[in-house]
Sequence to fold (215 residues):
Amino acid sequence: MNRNDVFHTFLVENANFSGDYELPQLQTSNEIPQKVILFSEAMSRSCKDFDSWVVFYEHDKKFERLWNNPKAYLEKLKKFKGVISPDFSLYRNMPLCMQIWNTYRSRSLAFWLQSKGVEVIPNVRFNDERTYEFCFDGIEKNKTVAVGTHGCIKTREDRLYFKIGLAILVQKLSPKNIIVYGRAPDSIFKIYRDMGINVISFESKFSEVRSRGTA
Fold:
């Protein structure tokens, strides 16, 4: 890696860009995940779950290393069925410039991975109305998108923000499939199932462990 490339410009070499903030355009995989695995688990030496898609719905500290040194993880990631693009955090109380930067980091890593032959489905992270001006840029319409609900629909306020953002997503991207990591309650997703959108949910690791503990 070029040590002088502190902005990791190599990630977006030959990319096309869209939107006012010039986010890299992605080509969405036509494949649909049957299994998913968290990045931190996928990178463990003992992991052999290569029929899974790698997801990043965990604390940013668990996958910041991918941004810091993406080339170190490429060969391992290529063993899996595909990757749902990194879910860098966007919080409502986070300065907007940081939210744009985290969205850019997700898109640029996703673009680079697919340029290296990895199947990619874009994760869409949004929160309040400020994010709508950039969070959907670079993502193909009428394809598959992924969203994470774990930790995002706990409170009444969180659910409201999520429902509004999801409605804007559907309006702007008209997805055929929505991959959900975490709960996909009817109160939020039934309207889209009724519209004919294929909603596929995967239980979060936290919920899975808790369920086993109470069984």
About this structure: The first helix runs from residue 39 to 42. The beta strands are 17-18, 23-24, 36-38, 53-55, 82-84, 120-121, 144-148, 177-181, 198-202. The longest strand covers residues 144-148.
